[in-house]
């Protein structure tokens, strides 16, 4: 995938995440907190399955999946709990504060993942520029709250 396409996709994903969090919060009010991850992931499975069925590399993908590190599947496991926590929290604190807290924790964790090379990522040392950038972003968030 080219980098020019990645930026708009990331921006669009950010919008989708906010809408998904708000809709999950509304669903929580109707179905209860424990049902939300089930329904969210079930409805997500349908388009995922349709896209997967269009993939011409099916056989090789399955072979690769079977050989991969089992910890790679923890994203789905964690996703269930993240969905539940976000669906509850968005109704308590609103989409804006939720998003600020999400961005700040994701930013800090991303710096740590890059710096220490967690999860097999190539190490990218912490620089003064990164520290200043993170501080400015977090400072702006504090000012807004």
- Range of strand content: under 5%
Shape: globular
The level of helicity is: over 70%
User: In sequence order, what are the helices and strands, one letter per element?
Assistant: HHHHH
Describe the sheet with the most strands. none
Average pLDDT metric = 86
Whole-Å distance between the termini? Answer: 37 Å
Count up the helices: 5
Give me the secondary-structure category. mainly alpha
How many structural domains?
Answer: 1
Topology:
Blueprint: H1 3-31, H2 36-53, H3 58-67, H4 74-116, H5 128-144
Helix pairs in contact: 1-4, 2-4, 4-5
Short recap of the structure:
By secondary structure, the chain is an all-alpha fold. The protein has five helices and no strands.
Features:
about 140 residues; mainly alpha; globular
Structure description:
This protein is mainly alpha-helical and 145 residues long. It has one domain (3-144). The chain is built from 5 helices and no strands. The N and C termini lie far apart (37 Å). The relative contact order is 0.09. The mean pLDDT is 86.
